[in-house]
Write a structure and sequence with these properties.
2 copies of one chain form a homodimer. Chain A is α/β, with parallel strands linked by helices and 321 residues long. Chain A has 2 domains: 118 residues, ornithine cyclodeaminase, domain 1 (2-Layer Sandwich); 183 residues, NAD(P)-binding Rossmann-like Domain (Rossmann fold). Helices cover 31% and strands 25% of the residues of chain A. The longest helix of chain A has 18 residues. At the A-B interface, strand 3, strand 4, strand 5 and strand 6 of A face strand 3, strand 4, strand 5 and strand 6 of B.
Chain lengths: 321, 321
């Protein structure tokens, strides 16, 4: 039998389909499968590069009773912007769970990873954000810092944004990119000011030193930390995890070797009784924020179930597969 | 900057280029890089499927000072032949080591994995086969069992082949597929007869029970074991490894968790002083077979350096990349 050639989807086709999908409930299904032992998700594969500095992650697995197993390769090469290239790159592959035959190559150039990451952040906000959001702090000015604002309207009416970045140039460029939006964007070079102003904070940088300190966090604040997805990266002082009333991880298994929770565990700042896996929070929202005084933290390292769900949803929208 | 779309190479184009390559020295370079600490090769990623039974391996890495990092996905779904499909499937991906940008998708349907595996077997024979090869025993009747005969002529003039298989039907089909070749193919349903007749044996099955026993192996025999690439598969009684004068592994690191050497180590049958990594044997052929009395074993679990070398060589033959 001759193999049918796999579909090769360019980014333009992928973004077209993406606009038609209801992403938040879709990605929630992936986290539910993970926390219900219906997903096979081996440890993340990792390749590091020194010159120029870069990293590639391979996330892969399958959800029982779905058609595909999915392999996603996503990289970050931080010198790329100097060459006019996005730092994040990558693609997704979908194979039959029945035969191993390659069914589709999604040439998303890292875009689907960016989107599913932003959506996971929105999911954490659904269950953990305080009801009285005054101002939303965005730490960082890169792709994720921008994508948050694309989806925030789906989970909160708040339009007040304060952004912090490493250089005045990047902060101004970030603000300028939203000049035609309905967000009120203020800027700061002081993390302390941001933490003092905002009771919802989203951190999006590849920092290897904590940016937010425990003493800066006010009661009632929720923080979603997106940036750290390795053992080396960290944006939050571990004492923030210690102080938090609720700590949510997208994958408790992955948090044993990467992310803020990994770091907090190393620093003996994690109380396992406060730790909830995101899929279990979705299953039982009563486990989430109780009042406007609690401090809550969600740590996202990115899980293959997100890639599986988004790739599968795109392919389910095609007729010729 | 708009990304240049990656090249997508169909199998027909890949096989065309493959015919022009001198594969044995090419793959040898990969093993040399591995054993010289010039290759970054993380642990193999693995996905297992129960219904139908299947497995997928992800092998990936890069060689310093080469243009690409390579990710290879290869699967075995053993019910596929009933559907008229090859059990082995897969593809290779080449990304820039400088930017992470995807440069090429090699839609080889598992063929490059099959070829680089057969070539590694030939490399072991160059250094370990006895000089007086009387007859070559092939254990198994599948893809690898056939591919050995495609390349054996590059390392030995011997044309006497004895093949063993699980069913008379498969053995006869194997023999029939070479009816127009210059090989003299005899068949057997007795492993003992095969071991008694042949002083060069290549095992190619996914068996989970040892097929060859220590008592069957005559002095002067070389065995290359290709089939086992997981912790569960095994074709050789561990006492064969114990009895052998020289034991060669394509990757000593991988042999700690997969293949015949893994099994022998578990069974306390491995003398580490006899163990040589294939790249070191290539570097110093004097470490190989000394005479026609020694028993030698090579255990191949398949290493990403093989995939990196074969994918890179194919891309180096293209002008438009």
């Amino acid at each position: 039998m001759t193999l049918k050639a796999p579909l090769v989807l360019p980014l333009s086709q992928i973004t077209g389909i993406l606009e038609t999908l209801n992403l938040i409930p879709l990605i929630e299904q992936g986290f539910l499968a993970l926390s219900s032992n219906k997903a096979i998700v081996p440890p993340v594969g990792e390749l590091l590069f020194d010159n120029p500095r870069g990293e590639a992650h391979i996330k892969y697995g399958y959800i029982l009773n779905q058609p595909y197993y999915v392999v996603k390769i996503a990289s970050g090469f931080y010198e790329n912007p100097k060459l006019g290239l996005k730092s994040s790159q990558g693609l997704m592959l979908a194979f039959s769970q029945q035969t191993g035959v390659l069914k589709a190559v999604l040439l998303d150039e890292g875009y689907l990873t960016d989107i599913r990451t932003a959506i996971a952040s929105m999911i954490t906000l659904r269950y953990l954000a305080p009801k009285n959001i005054k101002s939303i702090g965005i730490v960082g000015t890169g792709i994720q810092a921008k994508l948050q604002l694309k989806y925030l309207k789906e989970v909160t009416p708040c339009k007040n944004i304060m952004v912090w970045g490493r250089t005045a140039e990047k902060i101004e460029a970030y603000k300028a990119s939203f000049k035609n939006s309905d967000y009120n964007i203020s800027i700061t070079s002081s993390i302390k000011e941001l933490a003092n102003t905002c009771n919802l904070i989203i951190t999006t940088t590849p920092s290897k030193e904590p940016l937010l300190q425990e003493s800066q966090i006010k009661k009632g604040t929720h923080i979603t930390a997106i940036g750290s997805d390795t053992s080396e990266k960290t944006e939050l002082d571990s004492n923030i995890i210690k102080k938090a009333d609720i700590v949510v991880s997208d994958s408790i298994e992955q948090s044993k070797s990467r992310g803020e929770i990994y770091r907090a565990r190393q620093d003996d700042c994690l109380n396992p009784n406060k730790l909830i896996e995101l899929g279990n929070l979705i299953k039982n929202p009563a486990l989430g924020r109780q009042n406007n005084q609690q401090i809550t933290v969600a740590d996202l390292t990115g899980v293959a179930v997100q890639d599986i769900m988004i790739a599968t949803a795109i392919l389910n929208n095609l007729k010729n597969i």
